[in-house]
Request: fold
Amino acid sequence: MLIIVEHLRQFIPINLRIFLCLLLSMATHIAYSQKSITVNNLKPRLDTDGNIIDAHDGRVARFGGKFYMYGTSYGNTSGYIRSNFFQSYSSDDLMTWKKQSPLLINPPSGIYYRPHVIYNQKTKKYVLWYNWYSRLWEGKFGVAIADNPTGPFKIVNNDVKVYHSDKGVGDFGIFIDDDQIAYIAYNTISGHKGSVEKLSNNYLSSTMENGGFITDECEAGAIFKKSDTYYLLTDFTCCFCTQGSGVRVYTSKHPTKGYQLQNNINRYPGKLSAALTDKNLNPNQYAILNRQKDTSFASIQIDLPASEKMDHIKVYQFTGNRYGVCGDTLAKKVHDLIKPIEFEVFIKDKREWIKLPVQQNVATTSIHNIITLSFASAQTKSILLKPVSKYPYKSIYINEIEIYHGTDKKYDQKELNAYILDGNPLLSPPIIPAQQTFVMPLKTQNGTQHIWMGDLWGSASDNIKGHDYQYWGAPLIFDENGDIKPMEWVDEWKAVLVD
Reply:
């Protein structure tokens, strides 16, 4: 373009020349300010020296156009020893990482976890908050400051008091609001109770303004804001667990109080049962709904990829699981009569289950009770089928579930996910086998997106804790109500970063 402008200079009015030069400058700036990145969760992240990055349970922050990864370096240890230290790495693109010096120089002897670095625009200081134990499990918070993002940080207070310091303090997250006021979301050691608290203007201490306990038996909290809603993400204690922990989502219109549980984006609703949606009516391939301790039966949740209309459901109940009579030649009974189940049907409306008035009809074949549950046309993406507890047997066998709207079977079985709910959904298997570390706001060509991060404990093939992978999820998806949709494992994802 520049060659063309120079060649035609004598023919182009000066105003148009200025406009073309400005256009060229803007195009060049856009080209250089956008960066395409690829995030891979199957390979360990390496630094520029080719070594596996050893920085866990911290955060990734962006200061001055550069990214900084902060974490605890564990090396070849159990993680519960005094050799832990805080390490940082820097990057221009979230892919190429340069190792920096350790953050704290000669800190007091202790066991250190959870480094979080934030920047104070008023004091022009970088502030490091961390969790440490002079003796397990006497949890304390420490705070240090530096003039640049990689330190070295000078300790200001190695025992920062917060409202619940008397209960010991553990995992935490730090968040800076639009007005530059900072908040800490932390859990106690005693009871692992979680709350959010306002920090002082210099970010070096607490104001003791605490909104009250929000959670029990939880840790690894992360707090962020989207639009006018504050999000607190946390779940049960994990303690370097290899199975990972869930991610309960709490929301509020106030940063410290009023949080309400919405959903859990890192736990399946129950046990995934492919047999219920595999198009296979082989009678001896079924899912079992057992009677629970409270005499109710396990329920079935069906999830569609998007909200759709429906007006009836077909449930194929296998009737072959009958007990016969053996050895009694005078017995009149041949076998148990397998009666059709009665179901209650619920659909999810926003965050609540709504019970539908249902008409039930049954057609019987040689091996199935085909139960049709009809109701007025409704739109949803989640259905709950709850067997009526008066059913006389201990177990119910189900081959298949089909969803219809009108005369057409509108939904391909491959698009459905079926779960058996036979216990506390908060204890069902995590989707991503990781423990949460942070939710990173990321400026992309699609606006500010939020990246969930977690440590995949036990993932290193050489069994070195410091080599355990980190999972960086694809951007979280928010629905029209502001709820976060459940996460899915993603091997690799791409984004275009902007300044």
User: Anything to note?
Assistant: The helical segments are 2-7, 14-33. The CA atoms of residues 308 and 379 lie 5 Å apart.
